[in-house]
Amino acid sequence: MNCTHCNNEMVKGCNVNVEGVIYGIKISKKRKGLFNKVSAKPKAAVCSNCGYVAFYIDDFKQFRE
Ligand SMILES: [Zn+2]
């Protein structure tokens, strides 16, 4: 995973927390069909060169329609 701004290799696996809240944030999406809701906990990647932060999830395929 490279930075979209400077193409530097990003540091993955950073935890995402809302300040003051123990629980992290969650990405979810409503879907049609049997499993009609998918959700995932996002992780963050940080560029150590320019400070850009990107969110990503490991289990992204379940968000495909
Ligand atoms: Zn960068």
Q: Would you give an account of this structure?
A:
The protein has 65 residues and is mainly β. The chain has one domain (10-60). 0% of the residues lie in helices and 34% in strands. The protein contains no helices and 5 strands. The chain has strands at 10-14, 27-30, 37-40, 43-47, 53-56. The model has no long low-confidence stretch (mean pLDDT 83). Bound molecules: zinc ion (ZN).
Brief write-up:
The chain is mainly beta and 65 residues long. It is built from no helices and five strands.
C-alpha end-to-end distance: 24 Å
State the helix count: 0
How is the largest sheet built, in terms of strand order?
1-4-5
Integer average pLDDT: 83
Please compute the radius of gyration using only Cα atoms. 14 Å
Please indicate the percent range of residues in DSSP E strands (runs of 2 or more).
25-35%
Shape: flat
Organism: Rossellomorea aquimaris
Protein name: Nucleic acid-binding protein
Give the arrangement of secondary structure elements.
Blueprint: E1 10-14, E2 27-30, E3 37-40, E4 43-47, E5 53-56
Antiparallel strand pairs: 1-4, 2-3, 4-5
The site of zinc ion (ZN) has 8 residues, from loops.
